[in-house]
Amino acid sequence: MKNNQFAIVPTDLATKKQELTRLHLLQDGDQDLSAKDLWLTLLTRINPDGHTAAADQEWKNGLLATPDLSIEQWAQSNSALTTDVFYLVALQLLHFEPALDFAIDQPMAAMKKINLPFEAHDQWDVGAVISAFYLLLNTSTKNGQNLLDRLTVAGLFTWTFDLPASQKPLFFNGKPMACFDPEKFIREAVYVETDMDTDNDGHADLVKVEITRPQDTNHGLKVPVAFTASPYYQGTNDQWGEKITHHVNETIDRKEKNDVAPSEPHFNLDFDRQTVNGHADQATESFSYQPSYSLNDYLAARGYAVVISAGIGTKDSDGLQTCGSPEQVDSMKAVIEWLHGDRRAFTDRTSGIEVKANWCNGNVGMTGRSYLGTLSTAVATTGVAGLKAIVSEAAISNWYDYYRENGLVMAPGGFQGEDADVLAAETFSRTKRPADYRRIESTNNAYMKGLLLAQDRTTGNYNAFWARRNYLPNVDHIKCDVMMVHGLNDWNVKPSNVKHLFDALQEVDVTKKLILHQGQHIYINAFQSLDFSAMVNLWFANKLWGVANQADELLPDVLVQDNAHEQTWTPYHNWSGNHETTLNLTNNSLTAADVHDHAQVDYQDQQDDAVYKEWCKHPAKWSHALLNDNDGHFSAHFLTAPLKSDWLLRGMPMLNVRMAASVDHGILSAWLVDRGTDKRLTTSPVVLGKGTLQEAYHYGNDDLREFQFQKEATPAKTISYGHINLQNRHDASTVDDLKPGEFVDVELPLQPIFHTLKKGHQLELILFGTDYGMTLRGNEAIRYQIDTYNSSLIIPDDQQ
Predict the structure, then answer these.
(1) What sign for the dihedral angle of Cα 291, 296, 298, 301?
(2) Whole-angstrom Cα distance, residue 8 to residue 117?
(3) Dist. CA 527–CA 534, nearest whole Å
(4) Cβ neighbours of residue 731 under 8 Å, at least 6 residues apart?
(5) Is 676 helix (H, G, I), strand (E, B) or coil?
(6) How many C-beta neighbours within 10 Å does residue 699 have?
(7) Using CA atoms, how far apart are residues 471 and 8, in angstroms rounded to an integer?
(8) Is Mitochondrion found in the keyword set (predicted)?
(9) Annotated catalytic sites, by residue?
(10) Distance between CA atoms of 303 and 543, rounded to whole angstroms?
(11) What is the DSSP track for 700-754?
């Protein structure tokens, strides 16, 4: 294991003493002890199973203080406390195993190799013991949780559950502890009134909001909120989505400049609001089941109220599912306005009894991945009061970049045939209440027909439908601080989404943090090598509790997981490199040297019928064939020479190609490939422990995960890609003419990268037509020609 921690707050000795005293770990008279006796006393107090002197003695007899003596044996000797003794014991407390994880005669070598924080002292006095012990509590154990959290999970601090509300939360090292009893959480539901009527029934849409909050909030404690906007939360219609999934085995059509899609259906603007018939101090409805999101479980035990809403068009709410539209965003914004005290909510759907979020301190942070993170980003662009911070993971910033690309209908990786209407159907969970659905069925059907036409699968152009779902033009409205998390190998929500958002935020006066991991479309809060949950706790403690904990300074501006080394996370100040390398194309190579030959390379896009059908059925076989199409049957390959040293590529590559198609329409697709036989990180994290991560005492669990090198070497890995319709050479909304055989210049930005190309590897560019995993698959007889002399690839990198 290699540890990477960023949420440890530098703390002075006086504060360390205060915080340890608050936890009853440091007590009256302790500082009069010798350094050795104080250390032994502190060790005894963190034994969660020790209730008698005999039990404590047995516990210490099970831990080594030296290679030959247990702690109990060493305690009887005249030996003084040393750095080696302290950290040999520390490694065992952190659940590292002797012989397997470290050598018992070299504890400090292990501390350095695992990258664990430590304090070395020539002479250990009382202050040194207190300081090092405090740091040890903040140090990650072998399962990625810090020692304090492991002791909390073991029940050492359950006495904090009974503290008066006025003394909560307990903060340790700038972060709230899990001092709230999950068995006494209050679970309640309210109905927030929106400013819209998307189901056109003449009444303002109500959205159901489910709340989990500490019991202490009934006794005067006001807490911040971790709000997750999840259209999936009330259930999904997977079979509905499968039924209307679009056929993709069809040709792209030639476009005309006057091809314009119909407008999206409009919603009723004349509607009534509910009459207030009274007020209640608390909600009257509750709920029994809440799908687990382990980061929210972690936060709930630490005093954050967890609020979840599925928004309009979902079970127990009004309205229609509109897939990322301003209406859906405003329905989630309305929840924050209620939490902040600026909007009405009711105890139920019909009585008109208003209820306020009197238990909330008015500060809200948003969490969630994919659609959930997308809505976090979208709501942030409204500038709504009360939203102080978001943690948006794998989030869409522009829905066009999710379902389209440069004038092409484009599938999210792994979901060929999905589109906005399919997602709307899948998340329209009002179907889960049959009588409610019958009342709204005809209205929803009419809207879905209009949605299908407005999204325009015919041309794939950028239009008004997609403009309403593009949040980037409103980034300057963001007032909250933003933490973005994204996978560099996420082919579902492609990395360009977060790159465009991150770049746009550079001109906005808010704090912005970016974490890039080597995963696909995943959460990273249960990784062994990174203290992500603690980082979020630090972030929210600063933004929502108002704790001066140096979060902005401690958390890196850009944090990147290394692809060339296991469990390595490196801080940077920005994404893009400080340099660009231009590579010219020749017959079959990429070179930084000047090119003088006017070679042309051509390839065709049509396959034998049997091959075509097989690739449509199994796109992985197509991608394997593409990587191995060395004869250039249906692609063109260009490689650099083997690298003489490692090369860090960082930013958005730009491909410039002069090319022609044999017909009056066509596709240019491109892959960038790391070519070189090597063991690479697994495409998905490996589960190291099933359900082994508890979030608090008897509450919440998750699988411990980590990326590891594959057991077998692979010859290549695709690291970036891009696609463009040859009739959208200037932008996605403008149709250009294309004549058969006419050479045109095409500029194609590829997906952004942060990738180390290792010594001896080669960078490969592959140009082709149909992408069987993402584009339409018409198997049309088109031949493409590349003018290599007028083509180049620009790679952002670090100056070598």
Answers:
(1) negative
(2) 10
(3) 12
(4) 462
(5) strand
(6) 18
(7) 34
(8) no
(9) 370, 490, 521
(10) 14
(11) EEEEEEE--B-SS-EEEEEEEEEEEETT-SS-TT-PPP--TT--EEEEEEPPPEE
Which homologous superfamily is 176-248+261-572 in?
Answer: Alpha/Beta hydrolase fold, catalytic domain (3.40.50.1820)
Average pLDDT of the residues of the chain: 96
- As given in the structure block, the two tokens for residue 168 are 């909560």
Q: Which two tokens stand for residue 95?
A: 């659940």
Cα dihedral: 90, 94, 100, 103 (round 10): -10
Q: Which amino acid is at 209?
A: V
Q: Please provide residue 571's backbone torsions phi and psi, each rounded to the nearest 5 degrees.
A: -80, 145
Cα distances (Å, whole numbers) of residue 220 to 193, 213, 342: 26, 13, 21
> Residue 587 — very low, low, confident or very high, per pLDDT cuts 50/70/90?
confident
What is the Cα–Cα distance from 67 to 640, expressed in whole angstroms? Answer: 53
The answer to whether 301 and 293 are in contact (CB under 8 A) is: no
Closest CA to 482 of 548, 575, 395, 560: 395
Site of tokens 């662009």:
381
Band the pLDDT of 595: cuts 50, 70, 90: confident
Residue 740 has pLDDT above 80, yes or no: yes
Taking alpha carbons only, the member of 197, 195, 151 closest to residue 177 is 151
List the structure tokens of 56.
């404590």
In the structure encoding, which two tokens stand for residue 238, read together?
Answer: 């997977």
Is the per-residue pLDDT at 50 higher than 80? no
CB 194 within 8 A of CB 312: yes
Domain boundaries, the chain: 13-172, 176-248+261-572, 579-680+715-797
Instruction: Read off the pLDDT of residues 205-218 as tens digits, 9 standing for 90 and up.
Output: 999 999 999 999 99
Query: 400: Cβ–Cβ under 8 A, 6 or more apart, which residues?
Result: 462, 466, 469, 470, 732
Rounded CA-CA distance 45/36 in Å is 15
Class of domain 579-680+715-797: mainly beta
> Which residue matches tokens 């990258």?
115
- Rounded CA separation 336/326 (Å): 15
